[in-house]
TrEMBL record:
One of its GO terms (biological process) is membrane lipid metabolic process. The chain crosses the membrane at residues 43-64, 76-100. It comes from the Bacteria. GO terms for cellular component: endomembrane system; membrane. The keyword Disulfide bond does not apply. This is Fatty acid hydroxylase superfamily protein. Its main location: membrane. One of its GO terms (molecular function) is glyceryl-ether monooxygenase activity. The keyword Ion transport does not apply. PANTHER family: ALKYLGLYCEROL MONOOXYGENASE, STEROL DESATURASE-RELATED PROTEIN. Keywords: Lipid metabolism, Membrane, Oxidoreductase, Transmembrane, Transmembrane helix. It is a multi-pass membrane protein. Residues 86-220 form the Fatty acid hydroxylase domain.
Length: 268
């Protein structure tokens, strides 16, 4: 009951907090139709969450309970418990998230679904909720085998998901932490770091895949940064029309053939 309440109330609290932050101290001026933009993103997210809850909620809990009772996975093999076990599980789940995110950019079929997240030209906290159902299905199927492989318990998965939610809402929000961005991004994915990932320049889009901990991009040699964050244009050049910002446009994005523009290395 407590876990269910946390997974319901905390996301709303996080969203409201970052919404207020970007309202009163935005990193860049908001474009028109902010409420309509947020409404479309949140309506899509609500529908996705309801469907994913029905399809995978019980299955995920059962897999996690089986893993815990059988002491399966890496944590069971190592015999770890307590604080360091929790740290290990969170780090490994985040490493898996980095790999999954990177594959969504590098495998054309997965990119068809993930690119809907990148078509948002008005990046704010609600962009953190803007994912296609097809991408959610793939992520949840992956989670079903990752849990027993790592040896994660149900509450450890919930804890990681709450950390993931808080950090992703923060680094998608239209906020800035100023000079603190540099020291913070040595550990966490910051708003400045993630703004580069949402650049319309393809070589920048294909960088900074980390979700919570930023060190994965340094390990994977996919880290990029630029100082002129205010000059970044968000979105994808092949989806410039406003119709891709509506619910129907977002839902149909994976099924439209739009070849990506050449990267800097492919030109000439």
């Amino acid at each position: 009951m407590i876990a269910a309440s946390m997974t319901t109330l905390l996301p709303i609290l996080f969203l409201a907090s970052f919404w207020l932050w970007e309202t009163f101290a935005p990193a860049r001026p908001f474009a028109d139709h902010r409420l309509k933009h947020a409404g479309n993103n949140l309506a899509l997210a609500l529908g996705n969450n309801l469907l994913i809850g029905v399809l995978f909620g019980t299955a995920t809990v059962l897999v996690a309970e089986w893993t815990e009772t059988r002491h399966a996975g890496l944590t069971g093999l190592l015999g770890w418990s307590g604080f360091w076990r929790v740290v290990l599980v969170i780090v490994l789940l985040d490493a898996a998230m980095y790999v999954w995110h990177r594959l969504n950019h590098e495998i054309p079929f997965l990119w068809r679904f993930h690119r809907m997240h990148h078509t948002d030209t008005r990046m704010d906290v609600t962009t953190a909720t803007r994912f296609h159902l097809g991408e959610h299905l793939g992520a949840r199927l992956n989670r079903l085998w990752l849990i027993p492989l790592i040896g994660a318990s149900a509450w450890e998965v919930v804890l990681y998901d709450l950390c993931l939610l808080a950090v992703t809402q923060w680094h998608h929000a239209n906020v800035s932490v100023g000079r603190w961005d540099a020291p913070l991004r040595s550990i966490l994915v910051t708003p400045g770091m993630h703004k580069v990932h949402h650049s319309e320049i393809r070589d920048e889009t294909n960088s900074n895949y980390s979700a919570v901990f930023s060190w994965w991009d340094r390990i994977g040699r996919s880290f990029r940064f630029r100082d002129d964050l205010g000059a970044i244009r968000f979105g994808l050049p092949e989806f410039p029309e406003r119709r891709w910002q509506g619910i129907w446009g977002m839902l149909t994005t994976p099924f439209v053939d739009h070849p990506p523009p050449e990267s800097d290395g492919e030109k000439g």
